[in-house]
Write a sequence for this structure.
C-alpha cells in the first residue's frame, strides 16, 4: 500500500470565511481531518460525509492529546495510504507547533505540505479595528507567546522584558491571558510607560468577539473584572487606541466593551438583536439525520453548531414482517420511517400493501418524513414521546376494538432495537397484543464518541435516552467530567435518563421536537447576559 500525505493546514482565525482557497481544496478531498479546539467547526462541513474527523484540541491545562501523540497519529493515518489534513487554528508556523509536526513526519518518511493560514496575531486585532502597524504610530510589530515553560516544577515566563519594554512598535501577545498580570508587572518594572494604550481581543473575528481597551497599568484588573479569558490576543502599543471600523458598523458598549463588524468579510460581530443565539456554541449529538436537522435549526438562530454525533444506524438484515394481519403500524422516529421505506424498495414490496393499515407516529418530525413520501399519519399524541404515544394509542385501540378484528395483531412496532420500553410495557398492561420488529440498530462509533466527549460547547443537546446513556458511558470510561456545558433534552424520558448521570440542572424542551429544543435554548439564553 502506498503511503498517504499530510497537509499542515492553517484554518485561519475565527471567521470561517478567512480560510484560504488552497485549504478549502484539501479539506474537500481528504480522507481524515485532525483538528484543534480553535478551529471553526464550520470548516469541517467542507469535508466529505465519509471523512473521518479526529479532535485533538489543546487548551491551557487541558490537552485532548499530547504533542507526541498527535505526531504519532498523523504518521499512523498517513501510513494507511490516507490523505490527512492537520487543521490548525491561525497559521501552523505561528506558535502552532507546526514545525515540530513537519519534522516528525519527514523523519518518518511521510510526504508533508504546509498550507499557510491567517494568524490571529494579525486577524484578531484587525477585526477590532486595530492595525498592528500604522504610519507614524508603529513601524514594527513583535509577536510573542505568553505561554510559560515548566522549570523546576513551576511555570515560568521566558521573555526578555527589558528588551520588550524598549521596543517602540506594537507588541502582540498570543496565549498570554493566564499570565497577564505577570506580563504587565514585568513590563512596568522594565520601564514601559504605564499609560501605554492596550487592547484585549477575545474570540476575535467571531460572533462572540469582545474587545477591552485600557492603559497598560489597568489592563489586568479591568480584564479580570469584565471576565476576559482565553482565547484572546493582547495588543500593547499606540495602535491599540485605533478603531478602524466603518461608522455604520461600529458600536461601543458600556464598560469599555466593543462589538462591531469586519467590513472586509461582511461578518457582523454583534447580531444579538437579529439572531438570538449569536455567539452561542451548540453540541449536536445523535444520529446523522437528527444532528443535521438540529444543526440547520440552530444555525438559523445564529448559533455555532459543533458536530458531536457518534450514533450510526445499521439496518437489520431481517425481512419486513407480513403486514396483512396488522392493524396499526407504529413509527417512533424519522429514522425508522426512512429505513422502513428503504426496505420496502429493497424487498420490492408495493406501497399498496399498506392499504387499509393505519399509521401512528411519535411526533411531527416522523410524520413529515412519511408525508414526503405521500403517506399520512392517522394518529399522533399531543406530547411527542413514547410514553404518551403508547397511552394514547392503546386508548384508541380499546375504544375501536371490533369483533371482526379479533384475529389481527393490533399493532406492529417498527423502530430501533434499542427503543423505549414504554411502548411494550403499556400495551402489555392494557392487554393488547403487538409485534415488535426491530428495523435497525444504533451503534456507537468509538472514535466519534471519543472526539465528542472532549468538546465543551455552551450547550449539549440529546435527542434520546440512549444518546444520553452512551455519552456518559464514554465520559466515565475516559475519566472526563464536563462541568461547563448545559445539557438539553428533547423530552421527559430523555431527561429521566440524564438525571441518572448528572446532578447538574438541565433544560427539557416543552415540545419534544427540534423546534422545541431550539426554543428552550433561545429562552435560556434570553434570560441572562450571555458570555462564555
Amino acid at each position: 500500500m502506498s503511503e498517504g500525505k499530510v497537509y499542515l493546514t492553517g484554518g485561519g482565525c475565527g471567521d470561517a470565511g478567512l480560510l484560504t482557497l488552497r485549504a478549502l481544496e484539501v479539506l474537500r478531498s481528504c480522507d481524515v481531518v485532525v483538528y484543534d479546539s480553535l478551529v471553526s467547526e464550520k470548516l469541517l462541513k467542507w469535508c466529505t460525509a465519509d471523512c473521518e474527523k479526529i479532535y485533538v484540541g489543546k487548551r491551557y491545562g487541558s490537552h485532548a492529546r499530547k504533542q507526541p501523540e498527535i505526531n504519532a497519529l498523523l504518521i499512523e493515518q498517513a501510513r494507511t495510504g490516507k490523505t490527512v489534513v492537520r487543521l490548525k487554528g491561525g497559521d501552523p508556523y505561528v506558535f502552532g507547533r507546526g514545525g515540530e509536526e513537519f519534522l516528525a513526519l519527514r523523519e518518518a518518511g511521510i510526504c508533508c505540505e504546509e498550507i499557510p493560514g491567517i494568524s490571529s496575531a494579525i486577524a484578531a486585532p484587525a477585526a477590532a479595528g486595530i492595525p498592528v502597524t500604522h504610519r507614524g504610530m508603529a513601524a514594527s510589530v513583535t509577536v510573542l507567546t505568553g505561554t510559560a515553560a515548566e522549570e523546576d516544577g513551576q511555570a515560568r515566563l521566558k521573555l526578555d522584558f527589558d528588551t520588550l519594554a524598549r521596543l517602540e512598535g506594537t507588541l502582540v501577545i498570543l496565549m498570554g491571558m493566564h499570565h497577564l498580570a505577570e506580563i504587565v508587572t514585568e513590563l512596568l518594572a522594565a520601564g514601559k510607560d504605564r499609560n501605554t494604550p492596550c487592547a484585549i481581543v477575545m474570540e476575535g473575528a467571531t460572533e462572540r468577539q469582545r474587545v477591552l481597551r485600557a492603559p497598560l497599568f489597568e489592563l489586568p484588573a479591568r480584564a479580570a473584572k469584565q471576565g476576559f479569558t482565553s482565547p484572546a490576543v493582547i495588543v500593547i502599543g499606540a495602535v491599540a487606541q485605533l478603531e478602524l471600523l466603518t461608522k455604520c458598523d461600529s458600536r461601543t458598549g458600556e464598560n469599555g466593551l466593543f462589538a462591531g463588524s469586519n467590513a472586509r468579510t461582511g461578518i457582523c460581530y454583534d447580531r444579538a438583536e437579529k439572531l438570538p443565539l449569536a455567539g452561542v456554541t451548540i453540541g449536536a449529538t445523535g444520529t446523522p439525520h437528527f444532528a443535521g436537522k438540529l444543526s440547520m435549526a440552530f444555525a438559523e438562530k445564529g448559533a455555532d453548531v459543533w458536530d458531536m454525533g457518534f450514533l450510526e444506524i445499521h439496518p437489520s438484515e431481517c425481512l419486513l414482517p407480513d403486514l396483512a394481519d396488522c392493524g396499526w403500524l407504529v413509527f417512533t422516529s424519522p429514522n425508522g420511517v426512512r429505513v422502513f421505506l428503504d426496505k420496502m424498495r429493497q424487498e420490492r414490496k408495493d406501497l399498496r400493501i399498506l392499504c387499509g393499515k393505519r399509521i401512528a407516529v411519535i411526533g411531527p418530525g416522523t410524520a413529515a418524513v412519511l408525508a414526503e413520501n405521500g403517506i399520512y399519519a392517522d394518529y399522533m399524541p399531543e406530547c411527542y414521546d413514547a410514553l404518551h404515544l403508547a397511552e394514547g394509542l392503546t386508548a384508541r385501540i380499546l375504544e375501536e376494538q371490533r369483533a371482526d378484528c379479533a384475529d389481527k395483531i393490533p399493532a406492529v412496532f417498527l423502530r430501533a432495537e434499542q427503543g423505549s420500553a414504554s411502548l411494550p410495557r403499556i400495551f402489555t398492561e392494557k392487554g393488547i397484543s403487538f409485534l415488535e420488529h426491530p428495523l435497525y440498530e444504533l451503534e456507537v462509533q468509538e472514535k466519534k464518541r471519543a472526539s465528542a466527549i472532549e468538546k465543551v460547547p455552551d450547550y449539549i443537546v440529546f435527542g434520546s435516552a440512549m444518546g444520553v446513556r452512551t455519552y456518559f458511558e464514554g465520559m466515565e470510561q475516559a475519566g472526563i467530567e464536563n462541568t461547563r456545558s448545559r445539557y438539553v433534552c428533547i423530552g421527559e424520558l430523555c431527561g429521566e435518563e440524564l438525571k441518572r448521570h448528572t446532578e447538574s440542572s438541565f433544560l427539557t424542551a416543552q415540545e419534544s421536537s427540534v423546534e422545541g429544543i431550539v426554543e428552550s435554548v433561545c429562552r435560556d439564553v434570553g434570560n441572562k447576559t450571555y458570555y462564555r
Notes: The radius of gyration is 28 Å. The mean pLDDT is 87.
